[in-house]
Amino acid sequence: MTADFDYHSLVTKTDSGLSRLDAAIEGMTCAACIGEIERGLRDLPGLGSARVNYTNRRLALEWRDETFDLSAAFSRLRRMGYELHPFELADSERTETETMRFLLRCLAIAGFAAMNIMLLSVGVWVGGDIDPETRDLFHGVSALIALPAAAFAGQPFFRSAFAALRAGRLNMDVPISLGVMLALIMSVYETVTHAEHAYFDSATMLLTFLLLGRFLDHAMRRKTRAVAANLAALRAPLASRVMDDGGETRVPVAQIKPGDLVLSRPGERLPVDGVIVSGAALLDDSLITGETARRPAQIGDSVYAGSLNFDGVLTIRVGAANGATLLDDIEKLLDKAANARSRYIRLADRVSRLYAPMVHLAALSTALFWIVRGASFHDALIAAICVLIITCPCALALAVPAVQVVASGALFRAGVLLNSADAIERLAEADTIVFDKTGTLTAPAPRVVNADSISPETLALAAQLAQASRHPLARAVAALSPEAAAIDAREQQGLGVSAMVDGIEARLGSTVFCEMTRQVEALGVLEPDVSLVAFRHGDRQALFQIRQILRSDALETINALKALGFAIEILSGDRPEAVEKIAVALGIADWRGGLSPSEKVARLDALREADRKTLMIGDGLNDAPALASAYVSISPIDAAHIAQAAADAVFLGERLQPIAVTINLARCARALMRQNLGLSVIYNIFAVPLAMAGWLTPLIAAAAMSGSSLLVTLNALRAGDGSLQKTMSSGKTYAFQPEPAE
Amino acid sequence: MTVLLFLVPLALLLGLIALVAFMWSLRSGQFDDLDGAAHRVLMDDDVEEDS
Predict the structure, then answer these.
(1) What is the ipTM of this complex?
(2) Burial class (CB in 10 A: 0-12, 13-18, 19+), A2
(3) Which pTM was predicted?
(4) Same domain, yes or no, for A532 and A603?
C-alpha cells in the first residue's frame, strides 16, 4: 500500500474511557480462527482487549493509552492471512442492537413472571379443596408478580398501540394492550373480592409468547443486516485523499467531504462522484449506465462512483455536481419512487385491520348480551374480558412473523439478504420479471472466452504475468488460473507487463506491445465488444479474447422462471445491438435497449397500469429508480451502492439461481402465512363462542392460547424445510448449457 | 399449611436469582455472539505454552 490508512477517524470512545475500533474480518473461515486471532494479538503493547465476534465475523479492539499502535495490529493480522476492514457502526444497526437487548430483557421478565404465576395457578386449578385463604394468598402473590412485570414487559406493545391510536388507526397491538390491561385490572378486582378465578397467568403468558415472536423477528433481521454491513466494508470504499501538502492518505469514503481531492488509479473503481481536475482515462461505466463500451474521460468531465478506471491516473474533485447530472436525475426519480412504494399494506396489517374492530365489537356485544339477559354487570364484564383475552391475536400475531423468521433464515443460507421486512410477501405475488442486462444477466467482470484454444502452459504463464497487473483485462486473464503465483513483473503504464522467464522476455498486454498486430488482422472482423490481450514468450504467443459473458446459469434460470409462468423482459441502458444478442441467446422476446433511467421507470409504470406485479432485477446506478419503483426488486451483491439500497433483497455470488430459490421460498412462505392465519381463525371460531357463553375457565384459556401459538410456530418451521419447497417449485431440472456461441 | 409461607417465597427467590443472572449476562454481552460462544468452550486457552 502506497499511502497510510487514516484509521483514527473511525475510533470511538467507550463509556469506560477506552478507545475502540470495530472491523470486519476477511479470511475467517472456521471457529479455530477465533483463538488464532485473539492469541495473535494478545501480546501487542498497550492493547486492552481484542475480541472476535464469530456470529458477525467482526473484531473489536479496545485500548487505553497511546502506546498502542493500531497499524501494528493490522499488519500482524495481514501476515496471519486475515484482512481487516474497519467500519463505522451505522446508527440503524446500533439502535437495532439496543432494541434487541430491550426485547430480550422484556422477554426474560415476562417469562419469569409467567412461569412463577403458572406455578401458583396450577396449585389453584388442581388443588381441588383448596381453602379460600390460601387461594387468595396465591392470587395476591400472582398480582404482585404480574403487575410490575406486565408494566415493564408490555412496553413494546403499549407504546406501539398508543402511537397507533394517537394517529387515529388501529393495529394489532391495540387489542393486545387492551386485553392484557383489562385482564390484569379484572384479576386485581377478583382478587380483592375473593373470587374464584384470576387471569394473571393468561395475561403474562400472552406477553411472553408475543415477545418471543417479536424477538425472533428482530434477531434474524439483525443478523442479515450485520452480514450486509460486513460485505459493504469488505468491498471497502476506501479512497485516496490528496492532502493540502500533496501527500496522500487512505480514508473510508464516508470521511470524504465535498471539495476534497481524490486520486484514482488504473484498475480501481471510482470511490466518489465528482469532476476530473487532472488526468484522463478510459472509464467502464457499465455499473452506471449499463453501457458496455468504454468512455474516454478528460479534465472537466463528470464521473460517478462505481465506474471502473481502465488505464489512467485521475484526480477528482468530490461532489462538484452542478444540478444537471445523471446522478441528480436519478435522485429525483428515486424520491418519487420511494413515495409510491410505501403504499403496500402487509398481509398481517390487512388482516388486523379487519380483525381488530371485530374483536372489540364481539367483546362489546357479549357484555351487552349478558346485561340484556339480566346478568350482573360484573358477570357481563368478565365474559367480555374473556372474549378479549381469548381473541387476543396471539396466534395471529405469531402467524406471520414466525414464517418470516424461518423463511428469511432459509434465504440467508441460500445467499439472499432481505432489505425490507415485507419483501417476502411481495416477492410471492410477482408475476413479471424485468432484468437489467449488464452486470445482472451478464457476469460482473469480463472473461476470457477463447481459453479452450490456448495451450495450458501458455495459459498458466500468462495468468502468472497477469497477476502482477491491476488492469481489468489483466484481471480477466489472471482469473483463468487464480492459484497461480505472481512473478516479479514490470508494468508499463498503458502497455502491459513484462518479465524474464527462462532467459526470454515474456510480455502480456496490448497487441502493439507484443508486436502481434499482424495476427490480429488475421482474426478478421471481431464483435465490437471484444477486447484483446496479447501474450508473447519467445515463439509462444496467444491472443486472449475478453468480453462480457452471461452468468454461468443465466439460461437455466431464465428457463426455470419461464416454467414458473413468469413473463420476462430485458430493459437495458446498453446499445440495442448488444441487448438483442443477449435476448436472443436467452430466448427472451421482450427487450428494449438504450433506455435512460426515467424510460425504465416509465416502462415499469406501464406494466403496473396493466395490472402486472413486477420483480425488477438490476445492478446499475441507472437501475436504482426502477428498482425502487418496481413492485419488488433484487440486486446482485456487486451492484452499485445506491442500487443495493433501493432493492428489497440482495443476492450473493456469481449465479442467478438464488432468484429462482427466492421466489420459490417466498411463495412457500406466503402459503404458510395464509395457512397460519387460517389456523388462527379456526381457533377463534371454536374458542370465541365458549368465551361468549361464559364457560371459559382460566385453565382452558391458557391451554388454548399456548396450543394455538405452538401450532402456528410449528407450521412456520416448515418454511425452512426443503421437501416442501421442492413440491412447490416446478420440480423440473434443466440441463446446464454453456454460454451462447459467438 | 404454614409450609407454604416458607416454600412460595423460596420458589420465587430461586426464580428471581435466575432472572438477575440472565440480566447480568445480557448486560455483559454474553448474548452478542452465540455462535462463537459454542466454539470458545473448546479452546485450550488455559494451557501454558512451552517457551
Answers:
(1) 0.85
(2) exposed
(3) 0.74
(4) no
